[in-house]
Amino acid sequence: MAMELTEQISKNNYYAFLWHAVFLALTINFMDMDTIIPAMMVDAGASPFELGGLTAIMVGGSRFAQLFFAPFLANQPSKKGYLLGGINVRILSLAGIALLFYFSGSLKGDFIILTIFILISMFSFSGSFNNINYVDILGKSVLEHKRKAFFAINHVLSNIFVFFSAFLAKKVLITYVYPMNYTTLFSIAVVLLGTASLGFWKIQEIPRLNHKIGGIKNFIKIITQEILTNKKLKNYLFLINTQGISLALMPFLILYARKTFAAGNQDVGNFLLFKVIGGVLVGSALFYFSTKIKYHYMMLTASGLGIFIPFLMLIWPGAILFPYIFLLAGMLFTFHTVSINGILLEVTTHENRALYTGLTGAGNIVPAIFPFLGGWIISAFSFTKFFILFIVIISISFYFIYKIECQK
């Protein structure tokens, strides 16, 4: 007899996911992809184009890989084992980075940068693999009327713990010199992410049969058919391809700060704190008004901030306002993440959720290419042209926000 999703099972899973969220929040500042990793790349001697390449992997490339993971995972009624396997790969990749910097004194700079690429790719691609499993399990193992509140409290608790851990991450950055600062940061991340993974062991998954996919040829046929016939999915993919580039902005802001006014580790720590404060403020408001605020308005706000931040950089460059730019960036990140994840759950069913989560990888073509393009534009021209291009692409997202017509 198939297991049914009861209030008790849903409650157990709700708290299991929150356990993971809390310890992941404690982890995230020690390997933050918006501040720590870009600063680490610059300190290791990476060029703007190399930074753009790594950002492309973290922001768009890894999510694009979901297209290749989806055919396999969509055929699996139970995904808990794959979820645990994916998080273990992430732990090992962080441990590898800690060891890399511990021994970096005897290694060449090019080798360090190449190894960072490999290990961060492992971390990012296993994260995308896990995202399909995570979304599928969450969607079928937590009752529907609890989901929006979960996303909001997830962000509140996550950002509160991120806020506290940000002080420790900042302390590590300014207490230790390169490369021991990164060795210490990633060692702490390994311990905390390992603790976060314990939450996944507590999940009581409700196995469900998904749409079976028979091979790559059939999968390509399904992708084409779904995109052509499902208008909501099509507009959702276009939205990710436009508004999604907002996730690539902060690494380039770190590069801007390092190159333009020689921001040090103390400054990077401050940027991290302001980013977290912005996320806490927005996450708290979304939790409090979770039954009243629609995803539609969250997306509009995210795109508005995505235009305002680079516009502010164009009219008022320099160091004075820069920490507050990260306050706004933290708000942008939270609005985008809550709305994009929430809409995905609303436009999918238990049967097609894993497939559609994989299909969203097709919505990351532009976010995967944009950081490469951005790195080249900055190297060949200027930050000004980069910010202008960013504004143009984000502006297009308003059209697809209105086309989605999300009612929740």
Key features of this structure:
mainly alpha; Growth Hormone, Chain: A; 408 residues
Give a written overview of the molecule.
- The protein is an all-alpha fold.
- The chain has one domain (7-404): Growth Hormone, Chain: A (Up-down Bundle).
- The protein contains 18 helices and no strands.
- The chain has helices spanning 7-28, 36-43, 48-64, 66-74, 80-102, 109-141, 147-175, 180-196, 198-201, 215-229, 231-243, 249-261, 265-288, 295-315, 322-346, 353-359, 365-380, 383-404.
- Helix 3 packs parallel to helix 6 (109-141), helix 13 (265-288) crosses helix 15 (322-346) and helix 17 runs antiparallel to helix 18.
- The chain is globular.
How are the secondary structure elements laid out?
Layout: H1 7-28, H2 36-43, H3 48-64, H4 66-74, H5 80-102, H6 109-141, H7 147-175, H8 180-196, H9 198-201, H10 215-229, H11 231-243, H12 249-261, H13 265-288, H14 295-315, H15 322-346, H16 353-359, H17 365-380, H18 383-404
User: Using DSSP, what is the number of strands?
Assistant: 0
The figure for the number of domains is 1
Q: Can you give the mean pLDDT?
A: 79
User: Unreliable segments (pLDDT under 50, ≥5 consecutive)?
Assistant: none
CATH architecture: Up-down Bundle
Secondary-structure class: mainly alpha
Query: Remind me, CATH topology?
Result: Growth Hormone, Chain: A
Helix content: over 70%
CATH classification class: Mainly Alpha
Terminal CA distance reads: 33 Å
Shape: globular
